[in-house]
Amino acid sequence: MSSVLHFPAATPQQSLDYLQAKLAYYTDAWDLAEDLARNLPGIQVIDARAPAAYRAGHISGAINFPHREINASSCEPLDRDRVYVTYCDGIGCNGSTKAALKLAELGFQVKELTGGLDFWKREGHPLTWGEAPGEWPVTAPDASCGC
Questions:
Q1: Helix (H, G, I), strand (E, B) or coil at 21
Q2: I need a surface site. Which of 24, 82, 128, 137 has the fewest CB within 10 A?
Q3: DSSP-based three-state secondary structure for 110
Q4: Which residues lie closer than 8 Å to 121 by C-beta, 6 or more apart?
Q5: Cβ–Cβ < 8 Å for 120, 29
Q6: Is the pLDDT score of 124 beyond 90?
Q7: How many CB atoms neighbour CB 47 within 10 A?
């Protein structure tokens, strides 16, 4: 018996529903970089790592908001009309999930960055160092994700 077909494939409608829902929860580095390069409103990137890790290199424009510090009081300044994209080091880290969970519990719209900072760097997207969020470079690297 087929290992692939041991469990029947979903119907096209089931696949459509599942895949649309999946994309509601996640974004990837390429899509996020495109939106940041175009300076589109409504998105705020949150680096959920510790301040020392943030200072050592972060996504240009991201604010440092360690997941351990997220609570109702610390979120008061956040704009509820924005979508918050959380990230941490990469797939071996769940800081972005913890940050997204806490933000969602407080009523914010969230997405997680697939692959975190690791995938961001692999694709050659801009980084900023230090305590300031930094700004997106005027000219972003010319790269293609190939997908």
A1: helix
A2: 24
A3: strand
A4: 127
A5: yes
A6: yes
A7: 28
